[in-house]
Structures are given as C-alpha cells and as structure tokens.
Specification:
The protein is of the alpha+beta class. The protein is about 40% helix and about 15% strand. It contains nine helices and four strands. The protein has a four-stranded antiparallel beta sheet, sandwiched between helices. Helix 1 crosses helix 6 and helix 2 runs antiparallel to helix 6. The longest helix has 20 residues. About 30% of the residues are buried.
C-alpha cells in the first residue's frame, strides 16, 4: 500500500484526471484489487450494483484503442473554431498505452431485475450508480498514489466490440490506471487555458435556484 495515508478530503483535493504523468510501470495486482474493491462498495440504486469492470492490458488492444481515440481527437479538433483549436492543441487527452492498464466500466440496465427499488421514476439512477463506482475507484487510486484518466473520445460501438460486450451491456468509461510521477497541482484544462473552475459560492443556492 502507498506509504502516505490521506484523509478523504486530501484525496479529493489531490485527485486529477491524469494524462501525461504515468511512469510506464504497471499497477500491481494487489493494489488494483483494492481499488476495484473500493469501486464495488459504491452505493447503487436498489442495491443493483449495475457495473462490471473489464481489465485490459494486452498491448495490441491498448494500441488499437489508442489509435481509435487519436482519430476521434482529430475529428474534434477539426470541428473547433480557430481560437479554440490553438488552445486545444497542447492538451493531451489520453494515456492509454503509457498507463499500461485500462479499466472499461460497463453498465447493465437489467441488473437487479425488472423492479429496481428507487429507479421507477428516474431510470438514469442506474448510470449514476456506475459513476459513483468510478468516483470510489478514483479516490482509492489517489490514496494509493495511482493515477486515473477518464477517456471519453471514443465511439461506444467500437469499444463494445473491442472488449466483446454482450448485447445490452453499455460502456460508461475507459479509465487509464497506473503509477504516476506526480499529481498536477492545477487541473490540465485550467493549466492550458481551456476552462477555469468556478468558486463554490457560485454553485450554492438557498431554498430556490434563483433565491
């Protein structure tokens, strides 16, 4: 286990979407298991636990997915107005091969049976549950000194075929997971000028949204 023990608040402060800081080492299996155990302990609607995790380490698969993501990046860049293209250019969007381990987080809408307690009027709570598992995974990884990068520049059908998902199972995320040299103090999108964060005071409303 990572020598430094972090409080949950410090883990939240240090958590970053990692792209360029991976050391190239492979996260060891015992650490990976602890991280996945933390993910599996996330709360879920109706205790349905609608997630599955596909661990990908085969270099050929990592290469294929990285090449696919690179094409998606180019398509996004080419659709930007010139001033945003210049800002986007230096931003690295993935560390698929550098991390050495990909975790594909999947969602099974049928998990929990036809009556999932708490999902009757809000079916999207199933996806929310899978995202909670990702957040648990991310914070556990941070306390272990392990970086996580969420890759979203992909065609879901391509990824489903790449990892041979059964019919009805959908992807939520590809997470790059691996040891890092450091965690950046400032998130990449702020460092490169894409978008700054907003203060907590701007996000808090009292009694009503416009109150």
């Amino acid at each position: 286990m990572h020598a430094e023990v972090l409080s949950v608040y410090e883990a939240i402060r240090r958590r970053r979407d990692v792209r360029a800081e991976f050391t190239g080492e492979i996260v060891d299996d015992s650490t990976l298991w602890r991280i996945l155990d933390a993910a599996h302990r996330a709360p879920s609607v109706g205790n349905s636990q609608p997630w599955d995790f596909v661990i990908v380490r085969e270099p050929a698969t990592l290469r294929r997915f990285a090449e696919h993501v690179a094409r998606q990046r180019i398509a996004f860049r080419d659709a930007l107005p010139p001033e945003r293209t210049a800002t986007f250019g230096p931003i690295k969007i993935e560390g698929i091969r550098e991390s050495g381990t990909g975790i594909v987080v999947c969602y099974d809408d049928s998990r929990g049976g036809p009556q999932v307690l708490g999902r009757a009027t809000m079916p999207e709570t199933g996806i929310y549950s899978a995202v909670l598992a990702i957040q648990n995974l991310w914070l556990a990884a941070t306390t272990e000194g392990i970086g996580v990068g969420w890759v979203s520049f992909y065609d879901p059908e391509f990824l489903a075929e790449l990892v041979d998902l059964p019919e009805g199972i959908r992807t939520v995320a590809w997470l790059c997971v691996g040891p890092v040299h450091e965690f950046q103090r400032v998130p990449d999108l702020e460092r490169f000028g894409w978008r700054a964060g907003r203060p907590l005071t701007d996000a808090i409303h009292h009694e009503t949204y416009r109150g």
